[in-house]
Structures are given as C-alpha cells and as structure tokens.
Fold:
Amino acid sequence: MPQGFEPLTSLSMKADTPPHRECYDQEFTLESHPNNDLSVDEERLLRKRETALGYRIMASWGWGADGSGHITARDPENKNCFWLLGYGVPFAKATIDDLVLIDEAGALIEGNRAANPAAFHIHAPIHAARGDVIGAIHTHTPYGTPFSALAEPLPMSSQEAAAFYELQGVYEGEELNVTDLQTGRSIAEALGDGRLVILANHGLLTVGTSVASAVGFYLNAERAAEVAVKTPHGRQISSSAAQEVHASVGNELNGWHIFQWLVRSRLGDPAEVG
Structure:
C-alpha cells in the first residue's frame, strides 16, 4: 500500500440512520473519521452520495459548467464496475438517481443515461490497475489546466502541494481528448501508485481510497497549481521539509476532512442528493 493510503479507523453510526444523514448531522470535530463498518448496501449508498456531492462541489466553483469533468466511484460489490453522473445532468443538480453504473467494458449496467465516453476511457483503466482506488476525479480548472501545460509535477512550493510529495506523476501524451482505453492505460501507468497525475496540456486527476478523499485532494491540487501559476519562481521547500509536511497533511483522512469542510461550506442541504 503506497505512502499516504493508510486504513482509516471507524466512526460509530446508529444502525437505523442512513450513513449520509448521520455523517452530516453530527458534530464535525478533529476526531471525526469515516465509518468503515457498513454493509455493502450502505457502503454503495455512501459512495453514490459522495459522488453526487462531489459533482455539486465542482459546480460550486463553476467547474464542469460545460460538461468537462467526471467523478467515479467503484461499486463495493461489483468491483469491476463504477458509478458516475449520467451525461447531460448539470453538476449542480446531481443526485444519486442521476448516477449510472458501467462495467470495465463500458456496458451500462444500471441507469437511464449514457456515460461520458472520456470518463470511461480515462477512469476504467485506473480502477482496473489500482484496486485500492475507490474514487477518482478529473475536470478542467482555472489553474490546474494552465499548470498542466508545463507538463511537469507540482513544485513543493505550498502546503497543499506537500500532500502529493512522492505521490504524483505526469502523463506527457498529446491525446487531449481521450477516446480510447490504451490512452487511459498510459494515464494509469503515469499515475502509478500515486495520488495525482498531471495530464499534460489537459488538467489534473486525483484518486483516493474514498470518493471523499479524492475530491478533497483535488482541491489541494488545484490550490497548489494556483500557487505555481501565480509565483512561477517561488521558493520550493527541501525534500526533507516536504516529507515532514506530508506526514501531517498527506494522509487519506486529511482528504476526507477537506471533503467534509467543502460539503458544509460550499453546499446547502446535502440530503438533496438523495
């Protein structure tokens, strides 16, 4: 298991309360952790809700207003399948009922809409190559896309960047519109065992052991890209310093906490997603 992908401790939930409602109704503290003691059905529902919320979080910044972007969540039972928002649904209106389930060949297993073809071609090989990846997110952002044109890793010039210390790769291909699985496999290879892959001239992609952490760390990547774009000659901290900072900001729990903040500060009632 790569650095930064530690198992998370469990947070108790009432047996008769849906995991989503309990998570966002209870007090959020430094000690809050995700619940890993869920049934398969409860876990599926949680992943779908985090996916729908993730799309709404993207929309809160205007990301994906043109349909460019996707979040996927591996199904906890049919692990070669993943959930994502059906094509044509505005991100700000995403609900669990708008998600579709597709398999590793792109076949529609559940849902009434088509899947974004680029989402399938990019995400399917990542989920196939990385059994530890539950969630993955990619979109085109104001700083991530310009930074990606440099075709280089994020510099260690901010706290947010340290979350990706020794956990990032660069895909240098020129296939800016990904239309085949082989390109997706090359992207998965560039990601390796990491958390972030910069798609040259295209944008950022992050993964996590939960949908929540993948989305949370995407925000970190975007902010780190903003620092790099705005201060291209800014100071970079040493490898030893980056490693030390990473220890306190680069665990999966950190990404999960960022997601909890985003739900509470960027969205209205999270129960709207279903």
Observations:
- The chain has one domain: 34-269.
- The two ends are 33 Å apart (CA to CA).
